[in-house]
User: Fold this.
Amino acid sequence: MLDYVGLEADLDEEARLIRDTARQFVDEQVRPDIGDHFQAGTFPTDLISEMGDLGFYGSNLDGYGLPNVSETAYGLLMQELEACDSGLRSMASVQGALVMYPIHAYGSDEQKERWLPDLGTGEAVGCFGLTEPDHGSDPSAMETTAERDGDGYVLNGSKTWITNAPIADVAVVWARDASAEGRPVRGFLVETDRDGVTTNEIDDKLSLRASITGEIALQNVSVPEENVLPGVNGMKGPLSCLTQARYGIAWGAVGAARDCFEQAREYALDRDQFGGPIARFQLQQEKLAEMATQITTSQLLAHRLAELKERGDLTPKHVSMAKRNNVRMARDQSRIAREMLGGNGITTDYSPMRHMANFETVYTYEGTHDIHTLVLGEDLTGIAAFE
Ligand SMILES: Cc1cc2nc3c(=O)[nH]c(=O)nc-3n(C[C@H](O)[C@H](O)[C@H](O)COP(=O)(O)OP(=O)(O)OC[C@H]3O[C@@H](n4cnc5c(N)ncnc54)[C@H](O)[C@@H]3O)c2cc1C
Assistant:
């Protein structure tokens, strides 16, 4: 496996164990069928609880039976899952960073007791409802509302592009509290079997096909006060969750790019044209050299992020830079790897084109590449260029 500057030599035992566990799980249980799932537009739901048993959900969180592993170990887990498929990493990211994290960080003791153990084992599945049909890059303009009604709230609105919505037991829904001054954004834990909740699958995707995506319609959905996340008010709530998930994406992208590189290198050494392996051509070597260099520099950035996160110095801007850089790198390099595989490269027998298609989603979700450019632009100049 590509690890050109020997970063993995410095891993501690815990990080190695998690990396190896995830690698083995992926190789034995997922990789053999992932091309079929991608073609069929299905996720291997039978593996959801096994991923829980292996500690893949919320593994960097503590308490409630959760593993509380280091940020490097968590990153390596995301890297190995995405080396198989971005859909697999998305499952773990959504469950851990977008559903368990807000409950852990902002939930009441009762909410934590109710949900964290079940989400951790995969007995329950969660989803994160922020994006709306008319509000993607600008979620603060959301139209979903929560109105006070006796002891609880009534929710109305619609969310779209929600990973796992059709199979979720609980949705973290972000809505404007229309009864409070200033209409702050608040987080609501909405069980998907409540009256008025419907979750339709979006089934015409050409990207992230091995992942279940859907809409959430909320029509006069009553939720009690105890379903409101008490510890957060305003956009800080959803944005802080996205920072956690984007951290995982910065690592995951390195894994998928590495998988493309490994396939391209192996293919170039095996494939003969003009009387010998195509790996002997300078044109092909240049592609491998560039790919290895780009992957290595992105890997270095991911490792640095882990150090900053571990000591509490990681900022959302650092994460924006890494998500933006590493995903663009993986998107570009997956295309080069595909190219090196010639005609065979457009089939599901090889991973690069599947990764390449997935990266159209990863480039877009959790803040598009453009939006992270603007985040960095504002940080570097002090001038916001969003509007
Ligand atoms: C497969 C998939 C899974 C997803 N899962 C989830 C999920 O689980 N939960 C969830 O809440 N959301 C999810 N999303 C939604 C995702 O986060 C949004 O698609 C993303 O935020 C972009 O929003 P949009 O699609 O509405 O695009 P838009 O915001 O309409 O953007 C369209 C284009 O305009 C550009 N643009 C927008 N604003 C600016 C600006 N100010 N300056 C310059 N360019 C700009 C964008 O970069 C983009 O290129 C998912 C999306 C996909 C595709």
Notes: The radius of gyration is 21 Å. The pocket of flavin-adenine dinucleotide is lined by residues 94, 128-131, 136-137, 161-163, 208, 213, 361, 364-366, 368, 370-371, 374, 386 (CB under 6 Å).
